[in-house]
């Protein structure tokens, strides 16, 4: 089988995870990943193996997501009837509540901070690879991560990690 397609296939779970974290909607995320894969395969002649296929795919996915957001803001919001909770839904467990609170907190971050945080924290990408995907210098990535983490601490009421606290 084609080595390029093997590399693309290996990236699908990570692309799906990232897309779901960005969109917070399984169907939109799956559509985003499908569009990304279609674009990557159609444009494979443009791929220059100077770096990993993974970074190239994440860049495509991120650009498609940003384009979809711009389109969404022009059209206005549509509500999926299936996403409206029913009144008889049982209360979620405490761990689920904390996770849901963190997901809501991440949603409030500016897009550039959210994208950076999800690439590094969710996908575990090295800083340089995340910076390359976002097409920013590594210092800019670090700054976005710092601001995102600080904002999340404020939103969730979580104190800074002990080694990051200032001593008075």
UniProtKB/TrEMBL annotation:
The organism's place on the tree of life at top rank: Bacteria
Annotated ranges, domain PhyR sigma2: 8-61
GO BP field: DNA-templated transcription initiation
GO molecular function: DNA binding; sigma factor activity
Domain RNA polymerase sigma factor 70 region 4 type as annotated: residue spans: 101-152
CDD domains registered for this protein in UniProt: Sigma70_r4
Pfam families (alphabetical): PhyR_sigma2, Sigma70_r4_2
Keyword Transcription: yes
Keywords, comma-separated and alphabetical: Sigma factor, Transcription, Transcription regulation
Xref: InterPro entries: PhyR_sigma2, RNA_pol_sigma-70-like, RNA_pol_sigma-70_dom, RNA_pol_sigma70_r4_t2, RNA_pol_sigma_r2, RNA_pol_sigma_r3/r4-like, WH-like_DNA-bd_sf
Family: Belongs to the sigma-70 factor family. ECF subfamily.
PANTHER family given in the database record: RNA POLYMERASE ECF-TYPE SIGMA FACTO, RNA POLYMERASE SIGMA FACTOR RFAY-RELATED
Protein name, as recorded: RNA polymerase sigma factor
Lineage: Bacteria, Pseudomonadati, Pseudomonadota, Alphaproteobacteria, Hyphomicrobiales
């Amino acid at each position: 089988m084609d080595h390029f397609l093997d590399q693309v296939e290996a990236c699908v779970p990570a692309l799906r995870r990232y897309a779901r974290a960005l969109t917070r909607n399984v169907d939109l995320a799956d559509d985003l990943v499908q569009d990304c894969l279609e674009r990557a395969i159609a444009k494979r002649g443009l791929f220059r193996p100077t770096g990993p296929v993974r970074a190239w795919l994440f860049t495509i996915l991120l650009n498609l997501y940003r384009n979809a957001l711009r389109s969404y803001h022009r059209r206005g919001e549509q509500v999926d009837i299936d996403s409206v909770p029913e009144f008889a839904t049982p209360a979620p467990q405490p761990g689920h509540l904390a996770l849901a609170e963190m997901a809501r907190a991440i949603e409030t971050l500016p897009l550039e901070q959210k994208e950076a945080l999800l690439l590094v924290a969710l996908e575990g990408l090295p800083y340089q690879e995340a910076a390359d995907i976002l097409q920013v210098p590594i210092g800019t990535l670090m700054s976005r991560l710092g601001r995102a983490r600080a904002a999340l601490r404020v939103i969730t009421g979580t104190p800074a990690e002990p080694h990051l606290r200032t001593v008075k």
